[in-house]
Amino acid sequence: MDKAKMKNTLFNIGRDLFIAFIVVIVVMLILLAYCRVWPPMVVVESGSMMHGPNSHIGVIDTGDMVLVRGVKERSDILTYMEGEEHTFRTYSGFGNVIVYRPNGDTNRTPIIHRAVIWLEINDDGVQNLSDGQIDYQNYTFDVPVFEWVNRNPWDPAENTFLLENYGHQNRDVTIHLDKIMGGFAAAGVEPHDGFVTMGDNNHIYDQSSGTIMLIKMDWIVGKATGELPWFGLIKLLFTNDLPLNVPANSWMLLIVTIIILVGVPLFLDLGLPRLRDRKGKEMKREEGDALSERAGVASPPTSLDEIAERLRNHAGDIGLLPEKVSSEKIIVIKEIVKVPCPYCDVLVESTLSKCPSCGGAIR
Question: Where are the domains of the chain?
Answer without folding.
Answer: 1-35, 36-248
